[in-house]
Write a structure and sequence with these properties.
heterodimer; A: about 550 residues; alpha/beta; Rossmann fold; B: about 170 residues; Alpha-Beta Plaits
Chain lengths: ~550, ~170
């Protein structure tokens, strides 16, 4: 005989889980009692939101499924932002929540919340388990659904009596998973793939627009091979950074609202756009009618609902990105050089580089560049949301997939630090830095407690400008410099860190950037770098909301 | 923009209806009519949804519905040869005398059944497509419709074609 909690722990281990992030409470006491003797590593966070973000960061950095655990009611509700973040960026997370006993469901019992109802729109699927007999099967299904097809979060809600009840339990056989209503397409349609290859060979000005799907399907090698064999310049979305080497001659960096001028020019001039694992998000396309106006569009995505959702497509290919790119490579009978086009793109790159003013003061972009120089290609950069995120995306040269972790779709401030903690557990041998702003870091700064307790060597580089910088930038540009509620009083983050027993240094001169980063990298535990940067720096270039992406402000004169 | 009839085969589990209807409201699609019931296979239910939208919107609705794990199959049966029916129960004023006789006559023309007769009212049951029920309702208004209950439309393909689980 085994109780539900024991069955849960055994099921998690059968799925290969080694680390979970969580926070205890009344309804999950039976689970925590089982964890007490278990060899599963449980990381106690300081707020459930951080558990969800840490599981998400763990998943993004490792490619495995992240797991978080919270109690019923407020615990479960606190996971919601983290679950929504994972949902918008298609990250495989399994969230386990406690629930009031089945007999009290719907009674407004203490710490009851309808978490399956609440998370309905932000999960790939969710379960309320009412019988201990169903528990093992549900956990298996949850992992299967989270990790296959277009990945996403799955929530499993467990009433307390389901966890305490003992049943005669035999582990389910490892037969192939069959869920009747869930059969994601894996192989692309050969005819469509052949058409795509043909179009790319015929094209004069092809561009590859690569997104997060390239990373989640592990398709970087195939993408690089295809781009090289056909000499196609590659631009990536925010989620796609790292899927193509940032120092590759064909790399155009990020496109869209804060993309490079040359990426946006190339897409606008292109006659054939290969969209791979990307979803034509409004931050990428700007005014959608003028996005890639001359191009035939090939769209590869595992989710059929993304095809044609925002932009009509000429050649849709539904399936796993890696498998489809491999099929394309196999079909290529010849290579292409696209010399004239590649040269034109190279000229744009030379004439319109990313730039910022260097007048001797400490500018935020310098910090990102210094980090890019200091870390090895395996170093992991996590970001918060806002200016810090865009500067990180622009100026850090990502060379490998899964080394860039950021909340793209939902844009969750406070994501970075807990996600960095998760990433560090996934990649214990890599340097992990959270590039933060003073606004974002204060949304989950309590996790200094977690980092200190477990001596997690994550480093936080705070670009401290005492503003909610991105909102301030919009106020400067579009609201006549009326800085409504975007100024933050200065915080001494070194002293905050000290209170938690975490080391840190304040950096005020540009000459101190590199040595301070070195000091952080050598620290044994967590480390905080408080960079006092120029306060009113803007992220440029910038496509104003609703404009075409080649109409950028803050760029070079054409 | 025209009405589309979607036939959706789902697993008969708690919460599946809220997953389906939640998707419509969340993504800004309107449901004109909804009918749910069990079907030929135990454990499954069939939902008939009528919604209005252009082709791209309907395509998006279908794709999003297909992503729901508990949805087995979605078919837009609008373009196919099909039978569609709705049932309505109408409680209408029918004082004994000429009024009642006229209501009975209207009922006969529409092949509506009288399913209850009260002192001052009768209840008519009518089956048909939306237009027929609309027409009957309009006619009965002059006598005074006290209460009207409609089921929502259900539809089925003619001939041997089916909306069954292929997925």
């Amino acid at each position: 005989m085994k109780n539900g909690a024991r069955i849960l722990i055994e099921s998690l281990k059968r799925e290969g889980v080694s680390t979970i992030f969580g926070y205890p409470g009344g309804s999950v006491l039976p689970i925590y009692d089982e964890l007490y003797d278990s060899d599963l590593q449980h990381i106690l966070v300081r707020h459930e939101q951080a558990a969800a973000h840490a599981a998400d960061g763990y998943a993004r950095a490792s490619g495995r499924i992240g797991v978080c655990l919270a109690t019923s009611g407020p615990g479960a509700c606190n996971l919601v932002t983290g679950i929504a973040t994972a949902y918008m960026d298609s990250v495989p997370v399994v969230a386990i929540t406690g629930q009031v006993p089945t007999g009290m469901l719907g009674n407004d019992a203490f710490q009851e919340s309808d978490i399956t109802g609440i998370t309905l729109p932000v999960t790939k699927h969710n379960y309320l388990v009412k019988r201990t007999e169903d528990l093992a099967r549900v956990i298996r299904e949850a992992f299967f659904i989270a990790g296959t097809g277009r990945p996403g979060p799955v929530l499993v809600d467990l009433p307390k009596d389901v966890n305490t009840r003992e049943i005669d339990f035999k582990p389910p056989l490892d037969e192939e998973m069959q869920i009747r209503g869930y059969r994601p397409t894996f192989k692309g349609h050969p005819k469509q793939i052949a058409r795509a290859v043909e179009l790319l060979l015929e094209a004069e000005r092809p561009v590859i627009y690569a997104g997060g799907g390239v990373i989640s399907s592990g398709a970087s090698p195939e993408l690089i091979a295809l781009a090289e064999r056909l000499s196609i310049p590659v631009t990536t979305t925010l989620m796609g950074l790292g899927c193509f080497p940032g120092d590759h001659p064909l790399n155009l960096g990020m496109l869209g609202m804060h993309g490079t001028e040359y990426a946006n020019f190339a897409v606008t001039e292109s006659d054939c756009l290969l969209a791979v694992g990307a979803r034509f998000d409004d931050r990428v396309t700007g005014k959608v009618d003028t996005f890639a106006p001359h191009a035939s569009i090939i769209h590869i995505d595992i989710d059929p609902a993304e095809i044609g959702k925002n932009k009509p497509v000429d050649v849709p290919i539904v399936g796993d990105v890696r498998s489809i790119l491999a099929d394309m490579l196999a079909m290529l009978k010849k290579d292409a050089s696209h010399e004239v086009w590649v040269e034109r793109v190279r000229t744009w790159k030379k004439k319109h580089p990313l730039r910022f003013r260097d007048d001797g003061s400490l500018r935020p972009q310098m910090v990102v560049k210094a980090l890019s120089d200091a870390l090895s290609p395996d170093g992991v950069i996590v970001s918060e949301v806002g200016q810090n995120q865009m500067w990180a995306a622009q100026y850090y040269v990502f060379k490998k997939p899964r080394t860039w972790i950021s909340s793209g779709g939902l844009g969750t401030m406070g994501y970075g630090f807990p996600a960095a903690i998760g990433a560090k557990y996934a990649c214990p041998d890599s340097q992990v830095f959270d590039i933060a702003g003073d606004g974002s870091i204060q949304m989950n700064i309590q996790e200094l407690g977690t980092a200190a307790q477990y001596k997690i060597p994550v480093r936080i580089a705070i670009l401290n400008n005492q503003y909610l910088g991105m909102v301030r930038q919009w106020q400067e540009l579009f609201y006549d410099r009326r800085y409504a509620y975007t100024e933050l009083p200065p915080v001494d983050f070194v002293r905050v860190a000290e209170a938690y027993g975490v080391d840190g240094i304040r950096v005020e001169e540009k000459e101190e950037i590199a040595p301070s980063i070195r000091a952080a990298m050598e620290a044994e535990g967590p480390f905080v770098l408080d960079f006092r940067v120029t306060r009113e720096e803007n992220v440029f270039p910038m496509v104003p909301a609703g404009a075409a992406i080649n109409e950028m402000i803050g760029g070079h004169k054409q | 923009m025209k009405p589309h009839t979607l036939s959706v085969l789902v697993e008969n589990k708690a919460g599946v209806l809220s997953r389906v209807t939640g998707l419509f409201s969340r993504r800004g699609f309107n449901i004109e009519s909804l009918a749910v019931g069990t079907c030929e296979e135990p454990g499954l239910s069939r939902i008939t949804i009528v919604c209005i939208g252009d082709d791209a919107q309907i395509e998006q609705v279908i794709k999003q519905l297909n992503k729901l794990i508990e949805v087995i199959k979605v078919s837009d049966i609008t373009e196919n040869d099909r039978v569609e029916r709705e049932l309505a129960l109408v409680k209408v004023n029918a004082e004994p005398g000429s009024g009642r006789a006229e209501v009975m006559q209207v009922a006969q023309i529409f092949r509506a059944n009288v399913v209850d007769v009260g002192a001052k009212t009768v209840i008519l049951q009518v089956i048909g497509d939306t237009d027929k029920i609309d027409a009957l309702e309009k006619l009965l208004r002059q006598y005074g419709v006290i209460e009207l209950v409609r089921t929502g439309k259900i539809g089925i393909l003619r001939g041997s074609k089916t909306v069954k689980s292929g997925k």
